[in-house]
Amino acid sequence: xxxxxxxxxxxxxxxxxxxxxxALRRNRAVIRARAGAGVDVRWAAEVDRKRxxxxxxxxxxxxxxxxxxxxxxxxxIVVEVVGGTGVAREVVLGALRAGKHVVTAxxxxxxxxxxxxFTLAHERGCAVGFEASVMAGVPVIRxxxxxxxxxxxxxxxxxxxxxxxFVLTRMARGLEFDAALAEAREKGLAxxxxxxxxxxxxxxxxxxxxxxxxxxxxxxxxDVAREGIGHVERYDIxxxxxxxxxxxxxxxxxxxxGDRVEARVHPTFVPLSHPLAAVENEFNALLVNGDTAGxxxxxxxxxxxxxxxxxxxxxxxxxxxxxxxxxxxxxYVPMRPSAERALVIPLDEVQSKFYLRFSVVDxxxxxxxxxxxxxxxxxxxxxxxxxxxxxxGGAVPVVVVTHAARGGAIxxxxxxxxxxxxxxxxxxxxxxxxx
Amino acid sequence: xxxxxxxxxxxxxxxxxxxxxxALRRNRAVIRARAGAGVDVRWAAEVDRKRxxxxxxxxxxxxxxxxxxxxxxxxxIVVEVVGGTGVAREVVLGALRAGKHVVTAxxxxxxxxxxxxFTLAHERGCAVGFEASVMAGVPVIRxxxxxxxxxxxxxxxxxxxxxxxFVLTRMARGLEFDAALAEAREKGLAxxxxxxxxxxxxxxxxxxxxxxxxxxxxxxxxDVAREGIGHVERYDIxxxxxxxxxxxxxxxxxxxxGDRVEARVHPTFVPLSHPLAAVENEFNALLVNGDTAGxxxxxxxxxxxxxxxxxxxxxxxxxxxxxxxxxxxxxYVPMRPSAERALVIPLDEVQSKFYLRFSVVDxxxxxxxxxxxxxxxxxxxxxxxxxxxxxxGGAVPVVVVTHAARGGAIxxxxxxxxxxxxxxxxxxxxxxxxx
Lengths: 435, 435
Fold this sequence. Notes:
The structure is a homodimer.
Chain A: E1 5-11, H1 15-26, H2 28-35, E2 38-45, H3 49-54, E3 62-63, H4 67-70, E4 77-80, H5 87-97, E5 101-104, H6 107-124, E6 128-129, H7 140-147, E7 153-159, H8 162-172, H9 177-186, H10 195-198, H11 201-215, E8 225-226, H12 234-244, E9 246-257, E10 260-271, E11 283-290, E12 294-301, H13 305-325, E13 351-361, H14 366-375, E14 381-386, E15 395-402, E16 405-406, H15 407-418, E17 424-433
Helix pairs in contact in A: 1-13, 2-13, 5-6, 6-11, 8-9, 14-15
């Protein structure tokens, strides 16, 4: 191996892969200076020949078969930017088996196959760079793994999905959900099928990665409690802002509770003075509470060709620098994954304040009934507000903010309340509050 | 060397040194898991015997002479938390000469002796960790060096000094400068002699470090243009907020202008909607504009025992992890410092919008004179505002916001204007604006 040149193979020339090829070209001099060695794209593998042609790479570097990359002994770093958990898994595991370092932006793959990927990497002494998998170019992975390495992480609060944050920001400005989502699509911030974003899967995968780093145990994405924003109504956003000074965010929350952890993604009200309330449109942010550093916030663009390429290329530079320093024979063991799985506290046991909107008939004794159903389960009301009166005996909204209460208590109380079709005209809206 | 235990020596048991000893003890298990090896304090060196006794370290680990640390072949990492550029320099250079890795929080030393320290570290294959030197526990050093390694850094905007940010925040709430500084002292946010903070030296040293990383060339702190906040008046803070929607910050600004750079620390107005306007009290923040990642913001507590200890201990963990991975024989070359010095553009050539407050007699033709003196030097006025009228013929404030203008043009115009003792009753206030 020539430590003065580091050879890489890029598998996948979608938006991110193209961005990586462009950034490597644009910043050739800076990268060489930082890595101490030049970075050469030896291979780009992509089944779409048009994309290969558009990449500007010479034909002898282009292939339709990723196996050409994995079997080339000259390739030291494989960049997996295929996405998904099918071929991408073969690429990552195949590269590690061949003793190659890996850089990937693939949150779905890493979150799901965390122990498999990192156990293999550890056995082979290979690095896995995955800065771009969470918040793209905002260096939160390195920040947690290295920058805050001396801290016990007490909690994480993240706005980890730009599409949903854009939609919620636009709804706070008066748009309905469908119009806000259509605008996100127009701006290229949402896929045609936006369900992975809207339903919170994307944020849950990212939280699983951040939580796994923080605990040193595997937090599977399927264990993250998850609720999307598809049912959020503009009414509640406006009401909570006006009455209580709250902004709505799709918050990813992780808390270390000793033997167990909280791990959840759901629409959440935060005070307008909260640092995450100021994060608007497609921007992402992560607030880390370290026991030693105190509260640290990272923010920036969490998606897009250039931001994602920034995370990927930075990983390439760091691995290339290590290879250069060690004369090409680097053995790099970034993390020995614990065989343990993090134990997640069921949402029913997690305490929060809640915003509740009841749609009830405007009759005496209705409020007594609501307060009674809540009080029987130790849920006490901090504030109660009835908007207007119905002159026709129809439904009116009654909005309540509770003191901290168990999720299960709220669930049971709402089951009883929503069962009373004589009083209650539609399903009660319940949204957690973090302060 | 036993790669399962990494032995360190702490030189200096002031606030930061004590914090490091405490954090190593508090987070023993987390640190062991992350580093893959235990971290033992083999030595603490401190001339004050009372502090040694208060550290809780066993007597056989305590010494009054730092040379005992440097000469012990078992010590792999020397933690320099003495501060200053005298003994601290001997400790850092001595440790590197002895082939030991170094962790330091010493911004003054690093900024001033950058080429000497990193050339020696490079020659000896030793790591120098200095995360805590800028913004304490907020991982901006690692963020710039590694997290954004694939970016050309276009500009940096930092609130790098907590004392001055606290003072300016309190002044915006109505306190005079002296009262705000007294409050900072009461809260332990300012030293008895606060001049290093107030005059901008502390922020200039930190900017020199960030700029040196960004350019790959040495930016000496003495080349950073510097103006403190000692002469800032509450009147201008209130006036600019009310009339123009600006907040005042002591901003550290770095811009890459190709062959040369801008590097300056001075009171600066930013729009209230700017992310740095939301950074209040003793908090610090850094906005990095990377060509690939876009705008990235880091924020948190930039000083104090625990935040500083977080940065130091994180560096220790990262070096210990590398030592463990390589079986104790790590050769680590973090950065080959360029022999080149960054060329700084003189402030006279740097363009900005300016806020100007003239104190002039309330007479016809005064404004024509002001506008003429500015206009002759190609400075055009964007907004002009006269607060009230003087009925006694005394001085009134006339506040002007200019379009972008060269610093030199403003300096020359104000020299002419302030020379007219018949019109102008006191020195004109001039504050740059960044948007």
